[in-house]
Design goal:
By secondary structure, the protein is an all-alpha fold. The protein has one domain (about 25-95): Methane Monooxygenase Hydroxylase, Chain G, domain 1, CATH 1.20.58. About 90% of the residues lie in helices and about 0% in strands. It has three helices and no strands. The protein has helices at about 5-45, 50-70, 75-95. The longest helix is centred in the first third of the chain and has 40 residues, at about 5-45.
């Protein structure tokens, strides 16, 4: 344990930031999973309503990823890779139909 006051404060700040980063990462994973489920549902039953749902979930996921990158929770390349993964998943489904 740190003895210096500033070091103790840095420990507290690091813990606070860790929890904030954890919530952002968890939200990104949850939105990505939700999007993938919507893509699977669209693949099973390609309707315009299902496509609208996919597009809405994609927008939410992209937004959260961009915010995580902006705040420094995710590296910019990681954010780009995750967004690309989402786009590729939809493209595979729409190209085959």
């Amino acid at each position: 344990m740190a003895n210096i006051k500033s070091a103790k404060k840095r420990i507290q700040i690091a813990e606070r930031n860790r929890l904030n980063n954890k919530s952002y990462k968890s939200a990104v994973k949850t939105l990505m999973k939700s999007y993938m489920e919507a893509v699977d549902a669209y693949k099973a039953n390609p309707t315009s309503e299902a496509l609208e749902s996919v597009n809405a979930k994609q927008s939410l996921a992209y937004s959260k990823i961009d915010r995580a990158v902006k705040r420094g929770v995710l590296h910019s390349n990681t954010g780009a890779r995750r967004k690309s993964k989402l786009a590729v998943a939809l493209k595979k489904v729409t190209v085959t139909n």
